Amino acid sequence: MSISLELSSKAKPLDRSNIRRVVISSWIGNTIEFYDFLLYGLASALVFGKIFFPTISPLAAMLASFATFGVGFIARPLGGIFFGHMGDTLGRKITLMITLGGMGVATFLIGCLPTWDHIGVWAPILLVILRFVQGFLVGGEWGGAMLMVVESAPANRRGVLGAIPQTGGFSGQLLATGIFALVTLLPEDQLLSWGWRIPFMLSFVLVLVGLYMRRRLEETPVFKEIQQREQQNPSVAQGKTSSPVVQVLRHQWRSILLIMVLRFAESVPFFMATVFAVSYATTQLGVEKQTMLNVVMATCVLAFPMHALFGALSDKVGRRPVYIFGALCAAAMAFPFFWLLESGSFGLMVLGYILLINIAHNSINAVQPSFFTELFGPKVRYSGASIGAQLGAIVAGGFTPFVAKGLTAINHDDWTYVAAYVAVAALVAAFAAWRAPETSRRDLTQEVD
What we know:
Growth Hormone, Chain: A, single chain, mainly alpha, 0% strand, 20 helices
């Protein structure tokens, strides 16, 4: 699908080549972010329980492995606060250079970790520490990358251009799943000894590409305009008595809370399907690991046109209608997804993933960059969008695999409670979207009341 960069007649002329660079670089950065983060999810489901928690029962090892997955989400809001302040005061570009480089280093070091057999209890301790660092850096990455695009885009293209970098999550998933699919072809002893390390170490190469792209970017027109206003009116800058984080928490806490609730319809289905369901299908339903990885990869490929479609639609009809549609679809597909998964048929499992992920999730995910950033004024936008999204990531996404595994454990390995959990989460988010303001026509240079 071709994307037009034509501006509305009332918009100021913008540098199209710069917009394209911003979109592409944000897409690459988002790809790397999700490659690093989702790779850990796959390893948690298939490997980490055996090599970092070998002395406890298989169920306890799986729960412990998923819990370390959740630790990264606990660190996200802290990163959102720290890097949100940096991005709102020092600039978007320098902040994104730091988050991307640091995240790549943390992921590389995970691939270098000795296992339980080598250093005992220190192995899972170091794993948790690096996972925390990884999550802290991710907390400042997403908000800034999305801001770069939305603040640089023409007003009538913010939805579709903001949706394109969101496909980086699926590019990262495609890379992580594809590389992990290759290493799982190794004999199990080689996979557990050195094969699982390869995908983590390859992150270093991807980060170098991302840093090269980002260093060529300019600051966003919105941030430049705010800086010019403060230079022309020094009393405005001198009148600042609190940091952007304090300001947004004091005056726009409702928007932060709104984002947290909205994320339930996106994060719960996604992490249930891409982390928990992979583990459940391979351990409880007897589906081959390679088959499940192929199912996830097929879903990732379809995510690209779907994001462009829903992003463009949100520019026409608004953010709220698209978000409500996606949330209701996620609720409706919670139970059918597991019925199709139980079939064991590759085609039917792909169909389940298409309905839950490519239609329900993708419609929501495509709208989030523009919707979330438009909720805040320019002086606190990085902080507000980052804090809201990352707090939502904790309650809605980080512990979804852990919660889902626990729900099956108390229900004799049955998935019914898990499906109900997904449906309720999506319905709550649909209600929040219905109550939310429509933001698609807002002027991003103006403060929000």
